[in-house]
Each structure stands twice: as structure tokens, then as C-alpha cells.
């Protein structure tokens, strides 16, 4: 089993409070799901490969790897995706939409990871 993932948030002993970061969780249940990351409680397991997950929805997304299910089709080409967010990001290639803007130089990107790489490689030197 892998180590719990690091978190930039400071958790308190009381699971109903989150020091300085409570606004990220609109419901107590969302906080409890998040805290499973740190406690390594992974109660949902893929029967195909035995990988474990903290939520049933994450397991369902993972299982699409094994089934090859890709229900989301690009409206501009024949490419298909297992996640609607991946399709939306892909479709920006066709539309030219670049919603992620660098605050340092104003350069625009079609996905947040490209902006992050740009900021790290260009502006952090």
C-alpha cells in the first residue's frame, strides 16, 4: 500500500474543522472523503487489478481503463474520452479557447498544466 498523499492543508483534530481551509469543503462528508487520503482508508477495490480507492466514483472511473469504455466523444472529431473534463480540454484544440492566463506576462494556454509548466520554467528563474 502506498503512503498517504501529502496535503497543503492543516487539519485539526476535530474532523468538522479545517484550519484556514474550511471553504474548500461545502459539506462535512466532502472533508471526511478527503481525509481518507491521509489515513490510507481505501475501501473500494478493483477486482481486475486489485488497485484500491477512497470512493466508489473513483473506482468506477478507474474500471473504464479495463473495459475501454469512453462515453464522451469530441464534437469536432472522432476522438473519445472516459471523462467529460478530458473531452472539454481536448475540444479547446479545435475551438482555440485558451482560458488559462499567465499573470506575469499574459500568455494564454488551453489547459492549466501548460500554464503551470510555463510559470515554473519561464518565471521562476
Describe this structure in words.
This protein is an alpha+beta fold and 125 residues long. The chain has two domains: 1-68, Double Stranded RNA Binding Domain, CATH 3.30.160.60; 70-125, Double Stranded RNA Binding Domain. Helix content is 38%, strand content 13%. It contains four helices and eight strands; from the N terminus they run ββαββαββαββα. The chain has a two-stranded antiparallel sheet with strand order 1-2. A two-stranded antiparallel ribbon has the order 3-4. β1 and β2 (18-19) form a beta hairpin. The relative contact order is 0.08. Residues 1-6 and 11-20 have low confidence and may be disordered.
Measured between the Cα atoms of the first and last residue, the distance is 37 Å
Can you tell me the CATH class of the largest domain?
Answer: Alpha Beta
Instruction: State the domain count.
Output: 2
SS-based class: alpha+beta
GO molecular function: DNA-binding transcription factor activity, RNA polymerase II-specific; RNA polymerase II cis-regulatory region sequence-specific DNA binding; zinc ion binding
Pfam families: zf-C2H2
Domain C2H2-type: 44-71, 72-99, 100-125
Protein name: C2H2-type domain-containing protein
Q: Tags for this entry?
A:
single chain, 125 residues, alpha+beta, Double Stranded RNA Binding Domain, two-stranded antiparallel sheet, 4 helices, 38% helix
Quick structural summary:
Helix content is 38%, strand content 13%. By secondary structure, it is of the alpha+beta class.
Amino acid at each position: 500500500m502506498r503512503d498517504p498523499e501529502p496535503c497543503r492543508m492543516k487539519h485539526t483534530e476535530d474532523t468538522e474543522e479545517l484550519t484556514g481551509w474550511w471553504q474548500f469543503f461545502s459539506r462535512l462528508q466532502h472533508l471526511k472523503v478527503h481525509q481518507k487520503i491521509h489515513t490510507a482508508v481505501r475501501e473500494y477495490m478493483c477486482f481486475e487489478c486489485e488497485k484500491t480507492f477512497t470512493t466508489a466514483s473513483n473506482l468506477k472511473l478507474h474500471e473504464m481503463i479495463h473495459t475501454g469504455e469512453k462515453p464522451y466523444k469530441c464534437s469536432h472529431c472522432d476522438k473519445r474520452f472516459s471523462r467529460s473534463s478530458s473531452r472539454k480540454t481536448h475540444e479547446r484544440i479545435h475551438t482555440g479557447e485558451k482560458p488559462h492566463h499567465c499573470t506575469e506576462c499574459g500568455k494564454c494556454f488551453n489547459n492549466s498544466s501548460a500554464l503551470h509548466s510555463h510559470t515554473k520554467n519561464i518565471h521562476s528563474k
